[in-house]
Amino acid sequence: MNQDRPMPYKEERWFKLLEQAVGASSKTAVATKLGYSRPAVSQIMNGIYIGKPDKIAARVLEVFDRWPCPYLNIEITAEDCRAVHSTETPAHDPARLAHRRMCRTCNRKEGGK
Q1: Number of domains in the chain
Q2: Taking the alpha carbons of 64, 11, 39, 28 in that order, is the dihedral positive or negative?
Q3: Alpha-carbon distance 92 to 74, whole Å?
């Protein structure tokens, strides 16, 4: 990555997730998962992308911003996490109530940490 280029988004969560995903596989594989071209991913990472990175940033978060849910024993998105812990308490559904109770003790419950 070229450190001389201004990259105001370099410290943002989505960029760190992108770097991590590329480090774990390749730019080509990550680009395929995101639905973007390899050159677009490379340009973003090198700070030479001509357009605004907003759409790619949103897509990176959608695809790679996941963490393990201790109740479901699967990885979920931040949006799914927020949906569980920010709605009204589901007193009518025992399974959802148990999930919500475990959610209160989870360190990820704020969604985005």
Answers
A1: 2
A2: negative
A3: 24
